[in-house]
Amino acid sequence: MTTPRDILFTALDAAPGRTVDRGELSLGLAGAELIDLIAARAVELDGDHIVPADERVPDDALLQAAASALVREEPYETVEDWLWRRGRDLAAAYLTALEAEGLLTRQRSRWTPFRAEGEPELLDSPARSGATDRMTAREPVLTALAAAVGVHDEAAADSADLPDGVEAVVAAVGEAELELAAARQRRDVEQAAFDNIWRAV
Predict the structure, then answer these.
(1) 122, β-bridge pairs
(2) Residue 1 contacts by C-beta under 8 Å, 6 or more apart in sequence?
(3) For the segment 13-24, what is each residue's pLDDT rounded down to a tens digit?
(4) Is residue 121 helix, strand or coil?
(5) Domain map of the chain by residue range?
(6) What are the tens digits of pLDDT across the range 40-89?
(7) Prior bond to 75 cis, omega within 30?
(8) What radius of gyration do the chain's Cα atoms show?
(9) What's the confidence (pLDDT) of residue 160?
(10) 157 with 169: CB under 8 angstroms?
(11) pLDDT value for 189
């Protein structure tokens, strides 16, 4: 399995019965893809820029799609830009892939049985067990990423335990999550102010 799939399993298992925030999860998945591409030496980091390297991409369709989406000409893309660009709707893509592979199902409400999409519910599988084992063992990369995304209560791994380049990616994911939260807070404040204006009319 891959780190993006493992972070998705971890997120869904950490949030039984509630909807996992797709935006936060998508940013984490984009970071996890980049971490796996670094591990496969398909890319390397030059400061905060992503430089494509060898073409050795893991045998996973979504990671191959990520590799194909890399900016291959200078000036190369920054990690932050990658997270926002690649992360757009990425959680939905992974959920669709896992559903197609029979690794999750959709829990449809009895009140809306004809809705196309219900809450994702993981099925028991070796892939799910592998992600659980990796998290239980506090594997540094998954633990750090899960903490950055906020899908698990485990403390982040010590940065000294992380492979080269991974610390920078995890930090960028954490910063992007804070930026997303701040943008949502501003939107909520603006919406509340707008609603108050209309109530006063």
Answers:
(1) 104
(2) 127, 130, 131
(3) 886 555 568 888
(4) strand
(5) 3-200
(6) 999 999 999 999 987 777 789 999 999 999 999 999 999 999 999 999 99
(7) yes
(8) 18
(9) 61
(10) no
(11) 63
Beta bridge partners, 45, equal: 50
Tell me if 177 sits within 8 A of 151, measured CB to CB: no
What's the Cα-to-Cα distance from 117 to each of 21, 42, 98, 141, rounded to whole Å?
15, 35, 14, 31
Question: Taking a C-beta distance cutoff of 8 angstroms, is the pair 144, 156 a contact?
Answer: yes
Direct distance between the N- and C-terminal alpha carbons of the chain, in angstroms, rounded to an integer: 56
Q: Nearest to residue 182, comparing CAs of 7, 23, 22? A: 23
Residues 180, 195: Cα–Cα separation, whole Å: 22
Give the residue carrying structure tokens 């200078």: 74
pLDDT at 119: 75
Q: Give the closest residue to 15 by CA, choosing from 125, 109, 107, 134.
A: 107
Question: Do the strands 43-46 and 119-122 form a parallel or antiparallel pair, or are they unpaired?
Answer: unpaired
Query: Cα dist. 37→34, 70, 71, 170 in Å?
Result: 5, 10, 14, 14
pTM of the model: 0.83
What is residue 116's predicted lDDT score, i.e. its pLDDT?
A: 46
- 84, two tokens: 């926002």
Other CB atoms within 10 A of residue 163 CB: 11
Residue pair 35/145 in contact (Cβ under 8 Å)? The answer is: yes
In whole numbers, what is the pLDDT of the chain averaged over residues? 83
Higher pLDDT among residues 92 and 199, named by residue: 92
